[in-house]
Amino acid sequence: MRIDPRIITVALDLYYKGASLRKICDHVKQFYGLKVSHMAILKWVRKYTKIINQYVDSLTPQLSDIWHADEMMVNVKGDWR
Fold first, then answer.
1. C-alpha pair distances (Å), 42 with each of 38, 51, 56, 73
2. How far apart are CA 62 and CA 6, in angstroms?
3. Backbone phi, then psi, for 80, in 5-degree steps?
4. pTM score, two decimals?
5. How far is CA 45 from CA 16, 22, 40, 56, 67, in A?
6. Which DSSP string corresponds to the chain?
7. Residue 41's CB: how many other CB atoms inside 10 A?
8. Cβ count within 10 A of residue 23
9. Contact 81, 73 (CB under 8 A)
């Protein structure tokens, strides 16, 4: 990649926080002095989201044999159940 991975990470973070592609372009230009098109950012989002999804799908949670339970009482029309 020609672009610093930290800039790509910032762009992805801003995208998933709800910033528009053009606002991300403006942010990268203001803070990093790098002019990037909104289409380049969209390509980053598509490329790295696919890679991250493949990685996350390969993970399996490590569970123990200890279970914790908690009791909850709910008031339904004046009757505690």
1. 6, 14, 21, 48
2. 30
3. -80, 125
4. 0.70
5. 9, 13, 9, 16, 38
6. --S-HHHHHHHHHHHHTT--HHHHHHHHHHHH-----HHHHHHHHHHHHHHHHHHHHH------S---------EETTEE-
7. 24
8. 14
9. yes
**Paired tokens of 21:** 């592609």
Q: Please tell me the predicted confidence (pLDDT) of residue 81.
A: 53
Tokens of 6: 């930290």
Q: d(Cα 60, Cα 69) in Å, to the nearest integer? A: 23
**pLDDT tens for each residue of 11-63:** 999 999 999 999 999 999 999 999 999 999 999 999 999 999 999 999 998 88
